[in-house]
Amino acid sequence: MMIASRWFTRFLFGVAALALVACAETDANGKPPDPLGDFSLGFAVVVAKHAEKGPFSRDATPEELEAAVKSEIQRVFGPYDGDRLYHVAIAVNAYALAVPGIPLVASPKSALVITLNIWDDANQVKVGEEHKQFTILERISGKTLLGSGITQTKEEQLAGLARSAVRQVEKYMRENEALFVDPNAAETEPVDAATDS
Questions:
Q1: What average pLDDT does the structure give for the chain?
Q2: I want to staple 43 with a disulfide (CB 3.0 to 4.6 A). Which of 75, 87, 92, 186 is the partner?
Q3: Contact predicate 81/34, CB 8 Å
Q4: Is 50 exposed, middle or buried (0-12, 13-18, 19+ CB in 10 A)?
Q5: How many helices (H) and strands (E) does the chain have?
């Protein structure tokens, strides 16, 4: 019998508690996003070579996991046009892409566990909480109510998880917007025009 890893122990508790609420969709009408301090996306780095596969999961290669998350980072954060570059690095720690089950009886859920690090390019330092971790569960919708293993392909499951993961990252960053202001920037006071006496 397969024993759930420590990542998925937390995941299973999360499912039981139904504690994770999905964030609102990002603006889809073409408007540029509201500024996030000085943030502008530098590199998007995603590493999944050590990702653990959860119980009752379809297979996904590290390359598939990396491509899905990286694409979403670029889609969400690419439009930000602040004055300073920040690099977003995500490690995929674990994943589960639900296999078909019996609806309402044994319907596995998809999940993703990631660790976030953000780097200030100019100052060459990490910003924010070091090794900030997120556990993402598939969103409940008409397509997943009976289990995404029945209604979605592996690619659709992975795209949905990547979307929710990056949404959680964006929410965290907005809640900590002060991190994305240059700590070395001095306040410049307006200089009054000199007048000859």
A1: 79
A2: 87
A3: no
A4: exposed
A5: 4, 5
